[in-house]
């Protein structure tokens, strides 16, 4: 068994959520949230921001930590136990450009219910629910994104 840690972002701009569409050689296909592996010496926050920028081209900043999801999958002959640390993020514009080298074919911002239905994985849906609830709470309470 191998343990792996990734970090990612639920990026929101004007109430819409950033998603990526991945098509990996017709073996893996679906909409996902941006995330990636922690590099040596890198903080979780730095990883999350770097991965969002690399995978989507989006300049974002962290609003707050949302939580951790965990799941297991098989890669080659090994089982991988993965944990992903998620951050609520704010973007500066609707601009996005999917990273083709990682097999992302499309990216864009979607209304909450559209995003929830498009996402492929239940654990990402759960993090989206949590992040969007926090986004709405902050908006209701007029908490700025830099607090």
TrEMBL record:
Keyword Hydrolase among record annotations: yes
Superkingdom of origin: Bacteria
Gene Ontology biological-process entries: AMP biosynthetic process; ATP biosynthetic process
Molecular function GO terms recorded: bis(5'-nucleosyl)-tetraphosphatase (asymmetrical) activity
PROSITE patterns: NUDIX, NUDIX_BOX
Chain segments annotated as transmembrane: none
Nudix hydrolase domain mapped to chain residues: 3-132
Keywords: Hydrolase
Metal-binding among keywords: no
The family this protein is said to belong to: Belongs to the Nudix hydrolase family.
PANTHER family per UniProt: BIS(5'-NUCLEOSYL)-TETRAPHOSPHATASE [ASYMMETRICAL], DIADENOSINE 5,5-P1,P4-TETRAPHOSPHATE PYROPHOSPHOHYDROLASE MUTT
Protein name per the record: Nudix hydrolase domain-containing protein
Organism encoding this protein: Stomatobaculum longum
Lineage of producing organism: Bacteria, Bacillati, Bacillota, Clostridia, Lachnospirales
């Amino acid at each position: 068994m191998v343990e792996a840690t990734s970090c990612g972002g639920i990026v929101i701009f004007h109430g819409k959520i950033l998603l990526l569409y991945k098509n990996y050689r017709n073996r893996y296909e679906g909409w996902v949230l941006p995330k990636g592996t922690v590099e040596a010496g890198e903080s979780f926050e730095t990883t999350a921001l770097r991965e969002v920028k690399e995978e989507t081209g989006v300049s974002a900043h962290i609003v707050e930590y949302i939580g951790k999801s965990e799941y297991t999958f098989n890669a080659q002959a090994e089982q991988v136990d993965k944990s992903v640390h998620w951050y609520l993020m704010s973007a500066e514009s609707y601009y996005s450009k999917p990273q083709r080298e990682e097999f992302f074919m499309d990216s864009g911002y979607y209304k909450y219910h559209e995003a929830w239905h498009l996402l492929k994985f239940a654990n990402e849906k759960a993090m989206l629910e949590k992040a969007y609830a926090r986004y709405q709470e902050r908006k209701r309470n007029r908490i700025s994104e830099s607090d």
